[in-house]
Amino acid sequence: MIGILGGNGAVGQQVVRLLHKWNVGEMRVGIRSKNIQTSELKKPSVYYKIVDISDAQSLSSFVDGCEILINCAGPSIHTSVPALKAALRGKIHYIDAGGEQCISMLADRISEQYNLIFSAGALPGVSGVLPRWLAQRFFRPASLKFYCGILDRFTLSGAEDFLEGICYRGGNASSFSKFLEKSEMVLPFFPRPVTVVAYHDGETSGVQNALGLENAEFYIARDGKYVNRALLQMSSSSRMESVRSLCEAADLDLAGLTPYILYLLQMDGISHDNKINSYTMLLKGAGVSAMTGHMVAAITMSVLRRDIENKIGMAAEICNPDSIINGLNDPHTGNYLQVLDCTIDDLMQISGGVL
């Protein structure tokens, strides 16, 4: 039995759909109340159970009999700790789309029977797997340029987690001001010019160190002007005002357009035939929630297949990249993956930016 918290949200629904498609067996889907509509997800092997994430007894009852607990409920800053504690009490595998803040709680813990996996989302998550997978084409990778482009709605939970990451965590105002330093760019595969913002976090450091890169640049490419404006005004707003403002701005940016998430990365280095080479990789999906759900489902399959055993940490650092890419590379779910033997600049010259 696989337990899924937040199973009626956009991420949770994607997880349920994919795991059912991949025939994982029985799933117990946590919902907040019996009034929540579940008709889209009614399957013979899918059962619904009311659960209160803030109540330890309710969580323990939900976890009882499960082999894996998946947390798709948000915001992660409020749900991850109680969900993790329930998994620890039950001594079962735990997979969280977010929850990076929980890793420090487990610094001295050695797991002998189960996995505790965090940041199994779109960013961080997929964003850390792609460079590791592409690096396998090199004998010695040297440099990376990475863009993650997003045009999508924010849920209230998603907006709160996003702002927690760039503004509030640790009260680091300087990281927020750096996040506002931006430039306009035209990039291949993007339908419009985007606002490019450099970012750096635990996952980007992990990628650079794990691959031994001499140089690594990471950027978020924002499609639209309203989210940028909302971010500029947040220093004078309360936390919840900022969350609502971000959601409204994302809706305005998306109006009349199709949501997407697009990863574009170029890696340079010495290939296995001892030549200097460059590869550009593209992964495009139907949106942040869909990609996050796909990543969570792919990690779950890795745990079930025992590709990951007795590990604690961020998903991108402990997973098998081949296994995850095989799970993500599914055009039937709206994903498109391609690797090209050229640079991003080469593509710009060929296409003028839009392919």
Automatic annotation (TrEMBL):
Saccharopine dehydrogenase NADP binding domain sequence ranges: 2-98
Pfam family, one: Sacchrp_dh_NADP
Superkingdom, natural source: Bacteria
Organism: Citrobacter braakii
InterPro entries associated with the record: NAD(P)-bd_dom_sf, Sacchrp_dh_NADP-bd
The protein's name in its UniProt record: Saccharopine dehydrogenase NADP binding domain-containing protein
SUPFAM superfamilies, per database record: NAD(P)-binding Rossmann-fold domains (SSF51735)
